[in-house]
Amino acid sequence: MDISLDGKTALVTGGSRGIGRAIALTLAELGADVAITFASSEEAANEVKNEMTSKGVRAKALQADAVDLEKAEEVIAELTEDWEKIDILVNNAGITRDNLILRMKEEQWDQVINTNLKSIFNYSKAVAKPMMRNRGGSIINISSVVGLSGNAGQSNYAASKAGIIGFTKSYAKELASRGIRANVIAPGYITTEMTDELDEKVLASIKEETPLGRPGDAEEVAHAVAFLASDLSSYITGETIRVDGGMAM
Amino acid sequence: MSQDVESKVKSIIVDKLGVDEEEVTHDANFTNDLGADSLDTVELIMEFEKEFDISIPDEDAENIATVGNAVEYLQDKV
Q1: Tens digits of residue pLDDT in A93-146
Q2: What is the C-alpha to C-alpha distance for residues A150 and A159, in angstroms, rounded to an integer?
Q3: For a pLDDT cut of 70, what percent of chain A falls above it?
Q4: Radius of gyration (Cα) for chain A, nearest Å?
Q5: What is the pLDDT of residues A208-228, one digit of tens each?
Q6: Does B33 touch chain A if contact means CB atoms closer than 8 Å?
Q7: Is B15 helix (H, G, I), strand (E, B) or coil?
Q8: Residue B66, SS3 per DSSP
Q9: B16-72 pLDDT per residue, tens
Q10: Torsion (CA) B43, B47, B50, B52 in degrees, nearest 10
Q11: Which residue in B4, B15, B37, B60 is the catalytic one?
Q12: pLDDT of amino acid A198
């Protein structure tokens, strides 16, 4: 039994770098046509697009600020016009603006909540009608183990990532009758540019807290996304799957 | 033309909600009388948009609760 996404179309927000990039490439590898959005890294986004095209699928790289609902509706309209339907949405776009609560600026709170949480509302709302018309779809929202366990210095990030879980469960309940599934992936410590910013001491303690004893690869997150995107997971909705080496169990 | 709109609207409702034609009276409320849930109502609006090739903004859609509301709204727009 193989996972195949042949004939399916997908959108991955924040797909130019890190986990989003790995997800986009994996979905393309499995046969899906994939569009990615990016905020600013145009060069990286085009590289991902070219790499996907070389796998023999259709690919797009679209510049879109994830915070902008109108832009999200434009992106979805473009995809449903050019590719007729959208089967898979991976809400991955996210940022960190870490600080202790005592020092956190309002701007740091707002930026993280808007980029990480409002973006999920934007894109999930925009795909709802096309997916209803298509009598099905799979939405995968990328949260974090920090949303399950909390983390000192990341209250804004943790709040946004926990919010994603509540949103996803509500969405799953609202749209299940139309064949639309919505699930969450909660990655733990995955090696990306985002974790490159962490200092050595923090990294050492993260490793210590991970039963599997090593950081994860972005591809290992992408594999779980591929499963949830595919029909192999057809009876799973509203679920959160940790991909964290056992960190948050 | 107005007769056309009315019969088209009624046939969409019969088709979408799986109800009998005689139930689809002018005053019938989609939710209370015709058994539509909230998503059915959204889908009805989407179907009207498709069949009549128009776009119905959310603020207008919220006021379309009965067969009569739909017929009058669409007669006005088409």
Answers
A1: 999 999 999 999 999 999 999 999 999 999 999 999 999 999 999 999 999 999
A2: 8
A3: 100
A4: 17
A5: 899 999 999 999 999 999 999
A6: no
A7: helix
A8: strand
A9: 999 999 999 999 999 999 999 989 999 999 999 999 999 999 999 999 999 999 999
A10: -140
A11: B37
A12: 75
Q: CA–CA separation, A49 vs A114, rounded Å?
A: 26
- Residues A51 and A56: their CA atoms lie apart, in Å, by 9
Best of A132, A175, A180 to substitute, by most chain B Cβ atoms within 10 angstroms, is: A132
B54 touching chain A per CB within 8 A: no
pLDDT band (50, 70, 90) for residue A9? very high
Nearest CA in chain A to B46: A129
**B46 in contact with A, Cβ within 8 Å:** yes
Is A171 considered catalytic here? Answer: no
pLDDT at B43: 93
CB contacts, 8 Å: B41 with chain A: none
- Cβ–Cβ contacts within 10 Å for residue A158, how many? 21
Concatenated DSSP letters of chain A: -----TT-EEEETT-SSHHHHHHHHHHHHTT-EEEEEESS-HHHHHHHHHHHHTTTS-EEEEE--TT-HHHHHHHHHHHHHHHS---EEEE-------B-TTT--HHHHHHHHIIIIIHHHHHHHHHHHHHHHTT-EEEEEE--HHHHH--TTBHHHHHHHHHHHHHHHHHHHHHGGGTEEEEEEEE-SB-SHHHHTS-HHHHHHHHHT-TT-SPBPHHHHHHHHHHHHSGGGTT--S-EEEESTTTT-
* pLDDT tens, position by position, A65-100: 999 999 999 999 999 999 999 999 999 999 999 999
CB atoms within 10 A of CB A18: 21
- Give just the sign of the alpha carbon dihedral A128, A85, A61, A243: positive
User: How many other C-beta atoms are found inside a 10 Å radius of the C-beta of residue A39?
Assistant: 18
ipTM over 0.90: no
Closest listed residue to residue A186, CA positions, set A65, A9, A19, A72:
A19
